[in-house]
């Protein structure tokens, strides 16, 4: 079997909700591919689905994959949240991401009266969804910590900018 066939096998097991089998093969694929980021992500996904939250977070964070892509970032935060490590989840969610930086820069331009080019508004649909998912996860973490209102207030400007961005792109 080649690596691509093994990757397909992992996805098939995930689709069939056979998470232990998927985990077994995902571990093999990650090893055989010399820990390619996408393969480690699938391994972490399998670990998460088998309730091995610490191992999943460690698989991503020890290789610094949580800084590589929004999906990896979000999965690492979800792992810590599921493990009831709310502060670590919040720390991950509070890390600066490209979409947050772009929205922050957009707000600065608005306040200073500078005009944007249409390219400044281009944010992928998956980036918008990931940002909203992050906000929802953060609000879940913070609800448990009685800080929900504070977090929403501090991030309201970014959320409003995202909603405006979404309405402009339609």
Quick structural overview:
Pfam families: ANAPC3 (PF12895). The protein has about 170 residues and is mostly helical.
Question: How are the SSEs placed, and which strands pair?
Answer:
Blueprint lengths: L2 H13 L3 H14 L4 H13 L3 H9 L8 H13 L3 H8 L4 H15 L12 H20 L3 H21 L2
Helix pairs in contact: 1-2, 2-3, 3-4, 4-5, 5-6, 5-8, 6-8, 7-9, 8-9
Overview of this structure, please?
It is a single chain. By secondary structure, the chain is mainly alpha-helical. The protein has 2 domains: about 1-90, Tetratricopeptide repeat domain (Serine Threonine Protein Phosphatase 5, Tetratricopeptide repeat, Alpha Horseshoe); about 95-170. About 75% of the residues lie in helices and about 0% in strands. Helix 3 (about 35-50) runs antiparallel to helix 4 (about 55-60), helix 4 packs antiparallel against helix 5 and helix 6 runs antiparallel to helix 8. The protein is elongated and about 50 Å long.
